[in-house]
Give the backbone structure.
Amino acid sequence: MAEEILTFDEVMTRFNAETIYDGLSFSVRPGEFLCILGPSGCGKSTSLRLMGDLLDVQGGTVTVAGLPPERGWDQLAYVFQSPRLVPWRTALGNVMLGMELRFDDRPKREMEEAARRLLALVGLQRDTDKYPAMLSGGERQRVAIARALSVDPKIILMDEPFSALDLNTRRRMRAEIIRIWQETGKTVVFVTHDIEEALVLADRILLLSNKPTSVLETIVLADARPRDLDGSAVLNEHKNHLISLFRTLEDAGKEVAT
Ligand SMILES: Nc1ncnc2c1ncn2[C@@H]1O[C@H](COP(=O)(O)OP(=O)(O)O)[C@@H](O)[C@H]1O
Ligand SMILES: [Mg+2]
C-alpha cells in the first residue's frame, strides 16, 4: 500500500542451513516510531540489513518507500551501537563526511552550514571542532545521529544505538531522540532488546519470536511523551506482560542452544 513506507511481506532468510525468517511480515507507516524488540539472535539486525540492501531477500518482498531495497536504500540512514566516527575528523567534519559520500556536487559551504545546523539540533553547537576522542560516548552518538540526518533520509534505522552508554546517558538520549523525531518528522525503526526502552520510545512495538522468527505480538502505545513508566499503570502492565513473554522466549532459546 502506498501509505506504508517500509514493508516486509513473507520474507525468507537463511544463513547456510539455518532459517532465520520463514515468512516475516510487517509494515511501517510514514512518521512512525517503530521499535523492534526481541531476544538476542532472533534477527533484529538482519531485518535492518535487508531494508538497507546490505543483504538480499531469499523469498518474499521488502519495499523501502515503495521501491525494492536496491533502489530505495538512499531513503535510509543508519545509526549503529558504536558511532563509527572517523577519528581524524572533527564532529563537524564527520557530519560533512556523511554528505560528501552521498552528494557529489554539493558546495562545501552549503554542507558546512547544514552540518552546523544538525549539530545544534543534537545539542552539540559548542562542540563542532572537537575530535571524537574529545567527546563522551553520548556526544559521539549525537554526532552519529546528526550524520544520519545529514543525508535527509526519510527513514532512520537505529540498531541498539544506546546500549553501550551508561544508564543516565541512555535515559537522556532516549528523551533526545524523541525530541529530534518530533522535530524532524522522520520515520524511525529502532531495534532494541530493552523492554523499558521500547515502552518509553515506541508508537508501536513488534515483539519478535525465536527463530524461525515471526512477529509474536504487536503493542500499540498511544501514551503522550515524555513517558514515565513508573507513573503509568498501562505501561507497567505492558512491561510485566513483555517481561513474562521474554522469559518464555529466553528459556525456549536456551533449550535450543543446549
Ligand atoms: N552473515 C551471517 N552468516 C551466518 N549467520 C548469520 C549472519 N548474520 C547473522 N547471522 C545469524 O542470524 C541470526 C540473527 O542475527 P542478528 O540479526 O544479528 O540477530 P539480533 O540482531 O536479533 O541479535 C543469528 O543467529 C546470527 O548468528
Ligand atoms: Mg543485533
In short: The chain has a mean pLDDT of 95. The two ends are 42 Å apart (CA to CA). Residues 44-45, 159 surround magnesium ion (ligand 2) (CB under 6 Å).
